[in-house]
Each structure stands twice: as C-alpha cells, then as structure tokens.
Amino acid sequence: MKTGLDGKRALVLGASKGLGFGIAQGLVEEGARVAIASRAMEGSKAAADKIGRGAIPLICDTGKSEQIDALAKDAVSALGGVDILVLNSGGPPPGKAQGVASEQWRTSFDAMFVNLVRLADHLLPGMIERKFGRIISVISSGVIQPIPNLAISNAIRPALVGWGKTLASEVASSGVTVNAIAPGRIATDRLKQLDAANAERTGRSIEDVAAAARAGIPAGRYGEIEEFGAAAVFLASEKASFVTGSILRVDGGQISCT
C-alpha cells in the first residue's frame, strides 16, 4: 500500500521510547520528515540517532504550557510546517479512584489533555490552510474498558476522545482527520512498570502477573511497538482520508466491550 507520506512533516510527542518511538520510526520508514519530542533532550537525541534519516530531536514536557508553545514554534521552524501531529503524553501514576489529591488531578489533566489541545490549536490553522492534516491521539484501552488501578488514566483520557470526535466533525471538510489509537498491552517500559506495580499490590511475582495478563489476550502475547506504529502510519496516510472521529484498537483482541 502506498501511504503517500513521503515528504510529509510529522511531530510526535513522547517519542524517545515506547509507543511514540514506534510511531516515529514507522513514519520515517514511509518517507516522512519527523520531529520527535520528549521531556529530556538527551532522550530525544538518542532516539533521533537511532531512527536516523534526518529525525529531529526536540524537547517538551506536556505538563508545562510554556514548553508546549515553544515546541509548536520549534517544530514549524525545523520542518517548515506540521502535517501530522501525534499527541502522546506520558501515563499518570497507577492508583485507585479514591483519595486522589485535587492537585494530582489538575496536574494530570493539564499534561494529558489541556496542553495537548493547546498544541493542536497552534498547528491546526496550517493544516486547514494546506487542506491536509492528521491528528492522532494515543489514548488507552481504559477509555473503552476501565483498567483496574489506573483511575487517573481511565478518567482523563476519555476527555481527549470527546474533544477529538468533536473536532473531527469541525475540520473534516478541510482535509484534516482526527483519530485515536487505543493500545492494549504493548511491550514497553511503561508496561513493565505497571506489571511491577501490580505485582507489588497483589503480592505476586512479576512473572506471574505478566503470564496472567498474556493469558487474557486472545493473541496470547504482548504487542510490539512496531505493530502499534504501523496502525498510526495507516491513520496518517492518504489512504485513511475517509477515517476520522474513530478509535482504532491495537490490543490483540483483548478489549471485550464495545
């Protein structure tokens, strides 16, 4: 399949490792020019060196609005514009819904929603003017089926979906699509941390926790970041121009509800 991504310009958040890295790598392989952002320039540079092919390292902590504003300017300056925006924020700490401090809710909401929307608002006018744009939000399967002990994520990420679906209807006639990808259990450092937290909470070994998790996935394994990246590449492609306001699951069949 010809993706039509050769020469397109992409900005991928949280791309120093994990899901963001997989997406950035996939876009570069299809000929896109990619700027990758993470909270530490050291991590961004290491990822850019690993990806190669002119990947551009940038820095941004999505919890800081001033860095969001600077990132928009830096990405446009480095690439000449942004055609594809991948909104991929870090996950909040695990925990129950009860007893979360108000300040924690506010901090997480800013980093996982408010500032991502702020970045999109910076870059949308250029997409609309060029009659081409792709906004892809990396969410969580918890949006569809809440994940135990991930209350903050379960509560906040649906806001990004609601915003995206509303925006999709507003900009579809301008050639801009807005979609989300819901990862299941993809083999990343974040998943290792969650397995370790679950093991500590339940008194089981990490190996037992991981084995039980894999047993609950029809595919019988954790996904790979390259598989997740391929889904994002499709949504970014010209072939996906009639797909908007949607959630694409990449979960090995794990999510059982609609």
UniProtKB/TrEMBL annotation:
Signal peptide: none annotated. This is SDR family oxidoreductase. InterPro entries: NAD(P)-bd_dom_sf (IPR036291), SDR (IPR050259), SDR_fam (IPR002347). CDD domains: BKR_like_SDR_like. It comes from Microvirga terricola. Belongs to the short-chain dehydrogenases/reductases (SDR) family. It comes from the Bacteria. Transmembrane segments: none annotated. Pfam families: adh_short_C2.
